[in-house]
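Exam revision sheet. Question 4 asks you to relate a sequence to its structure. Input first:
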Amino acid sequence: MVEPIEEELIEEILVNTKRIAIVGMREQGDAGRIPRYLIDAGFEVVPVNPNFQEVFGIAALGSLDDLDAPVDMVQLFRRSGDVPMHIDEILRARPRYVWMQTGITNEEAAQTFREAGIAVVQDRCLMTEHRRRSIANLS
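Answer key, structure tokens:
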């Protein structure tokens, strides 16, 4: 069972996140549309996908182990069952946050991240959460 996410945690994440490594990023589908939105919203996005040399003109990394600087968040566009294969590299990357997109949950991985001091969001859309707060701030 996925825990309800505190609104305060999402606010904290959106305020404190500047650089996001996006595992599974591509130019098509939600794994492209959502990162494109984040780029346009001013986030620094680092594509992590061994199947591409670049995504949206940004050099893609083969894994999180190839990061040249820290990231605030690792966002996952991977099937729930594939999340565990990224646990070790996420722990080595030491982000403050891990965000699993809508439809992606893995409680075992989430618990491992929490125990390492990494806040976790599961089964939520980062674009939707950002957009909702941006619109609220305009009111």
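Marking note for examiners. The mean pLDDT is 93.
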